[in-house]
Amino acid sequence: MAVLGVQLVVTLLTISIMQKVTSRFSIGKWFLCKTGLIYYLHPSDDELRKVAGIGKNKRKWEAETEEDKTFTVPRNLDLQLETARIMPVDILQLKFFSEFIWLIDYSVFAIIVYAITEAYCGIFPRGSKEVNLSMLWCLLLIGFALKSLCNVTGLYFWNAEAAAERSLVLVGGSFCFVLALALLLIDESNLEIGLDAAYSAFNQSAAVFLERQSLDSDGPASKLIIKLCFAVWCGITGALFVFPGMRVSRMHWDALRHCHERSFLKILIYINLVSPFLLSLLWIRPLARHYFSVRIFGNMEGPLMSDSAFDSMRLWLCLVLSLLRLLSAPSCFQAYLNLAQNKMESLKKEAGRISNVELKKRVAIIFYYLCVVGLQYIAPIVLCVAFTLMNKTMGGYGWFGQHNFNAEECNQQQEPIATISKLIPTDETTFSEARENWLVAMNSFATIFSSEVFRGVFGFTCWWMQFLSFATIGCGLAYQSYFDKA
């Protein structure tokens, strides 16, 4: 229990520091204001009149009302937009500004808490047997990221003019649901998501628990129902990832056009494009584990690495490639902001006239939705990192292969299984007895939800996040390349 006390102290200190630091220095604000991002300013009415050659009658202008100030200009105006650096004052008006700032700031502190907890449990191996409070931080991080994606996706359902976007979200979710049903039927000797082993371990331990509670039950739900629930979850996340994937592919597509002279940045963007695909291949046994930890090449005495080393390598690659995707975020955000000038260039190819209000709106809306685009880019990466961290800890993996536990130090007698009747306090039950009963109950539930169960659950979610990112970004690139040629 000493380790739990140390974790609680670390959590309280982190919350206190987070409240004080974020009020003065926000990592999310730094991400927007200190990375060199430049946005385009919409032209004023005087500039539009001057470029369009519209005369100005002073007496008539003074008598005009606000409604009379709307005028039209030719679409093919030779207009160059002015630029400005993003300042802290400018981002306060952006849509979903607070959600974007909070998600980034909380992600950083959650990773700090996780790193401190891992370091402490590494020094004192007995800590791995206690409740890990960093998992609560990661679970909240997943909830915040999913909530942000739900809010962004909800924009298409609240807007009456976004019928096509709503249809695409629903079609994407339905397609991911059907695809997940097909993938969950694949033999796990080829796709090692671990759900079958997790179900077997859970079914066996739960049946023993119910039997000791003197409850008549055939066990938990069938494997088909469990996989159907996972397929529904895959369909929901697929609907949330449709437009983030399309947006990320468009930003990468535009970023490649603006970095011809920066070879390192160009290579980094290409790595970011293929990283979800490469990571999703690591769960395909014939393509990954077979070559690294089973097959023996040439005159080698054994495979390249053990199974545990391969699991650790997979965890490290998920984190490192996610970090690389974050490093290229400023370039992708700048590529998105450049859409304002691109819209003006495409407007020159159109015939007819456009009102000054509509023209300024087309330019200003790009910067206004910067945080929305930021959430579409950051939230999937945050989900991949959070699920990877939970998979490592809850699944019992190690960062460098096998866990270095002292068997004599960590070996404890298995405590008895608690009955549900003991958990209900009576008038004769003392506080110490109630506390002891709840501790026994928690240990009993820990035997049901073992590391093998969590390996299957979080292993599948990790793989699905990578596969979904690859699939949506790939569809977006195909869409962009088709219309670019057209």
UniProtKB/TrEMBL annotation:
GO cellular component: membrane
Origin superkingdom: Eukaryota
Key words of the record: Glycoprotein, Membrane, Signal, Transmembrane, Transmembrane helix
Pfam families: Tmemb_161AB
Signal sequence range: 1-23
Residue stretches spanning the membrane: 100-123, 135-156, 168-186, 224-243, 264-284, 313-339, 366-390, 457-479
Bilayer topology: Multi-pass membrane protein
Cited InterPro entries: Transmembrane_161A/B
Entry's localization field: Membrane
Family, per entry: Belongs to the TMEM161 family.
The protein's name: EOG090X04CK
Species of provenance: Eubosmina coregoni
